[in-house]
Amino acid sequence: MTQIKGIHHVSAITANAAKNLHFYTEILGMRLVKKTVNQDSVSMYHLFYADERGRPGTDFTFFEIPNAGQTYRGSGSISRTGLRVASDQAVDYWYKRLSSYNVNVSQPETVYGRCQLAFEDFEGQRIQLISDQTNSGDPGGIPWSESPVPQEFGITGLGPVRLTVKQIAKTAELLTETLGFVKTGSYEENGRTVEVFSCGNGGAGAEIHLEPSPQEQTEKPGRGSVHHVALRVEDEQSLRHWIDVIDKRGFSHSGFVERYYFKSLYFRDPNGILFELATDGPGFETDESFDELGKNLALPPFLEPRRKEIENNLAPLSFS
Description:
This protein is of the alpha+beta class. The chain has 5 helices and 17 strands. The protein has a single domain, classed as 2,3-Dihydroxybiphenyl 1,2-Dioxygenase, domain 1 (Roll). The chain has helices at 17-27, 88-100, 168-178, 236-248, 307-312, and strands at 7-14, 31-38, 41-50, 59-64, 77-85, 104-105, 109-111, 114-120, 126-131, 157-165, 182-189, 192-198, 207-212, 226-233, 257-258, 263-268, 274-279. The longest helix is centred in the N-terminal third of the chain and has 13 residues, at 88-100. It is globular.
């Protein structure tokens, strides 16, 4: 019951919600399953892209910060987000598709026994598509049938998340000694050894990859950077167990946070990485039907009395 199950979601920063919406729905073919606001700063959009219904482990989310500056890459960063697809054939499809849209994409290659390709979105967000053809562990989600991408090639969820840190041993200790991850392998990339840590049932959807930073400076985040990575826990009871664990280990943390669609805890590791633990439920159909997901501005009950004020402070956002 108290086991960390895998990656829950990844939250990043965009300076342009309209272009972001176009890229992730029209080019990547993900479904916008929730159009809401940052609950801690309600003047900014918070957009959730996922599989057909936003299953845990499929959400790539973005905060819109219109004045966000350039990201200056460095250590202490969530430096790459993995997105899973069903097969090696799907990776080949994506190389051709992304190239046709003039996306900055690399040739497919095999790394750690998996076919994959790296690319960046229009703001330099670093992403890696990873084939599940040889994957074990929990299956991915189900791509939306109304996506512009054929369902058999669609993105099924989040894959490994890469952290680039100066002091790998300290983050590795957090993962193994506190969160229950196990080191399951390593591979070489650009002359550096990347260590692989797994939790839950393992596989691409339950991996953190640790890369030693080639840079001394800490990353200065901006548009195209990742804000935090969230890990899956079963329910509120399990989350409260982890709050107690994190507290006893001496980490400064947020305490219990009610996010309405899930419940959360936030804390930073010794390298400055912001982690969240998030419950699998209740999910995005709490306030919208399956067919209506993402079509309207959704607000949790505690923000509903401020709807008019919030809507007046947001630029209209709709599908092209």
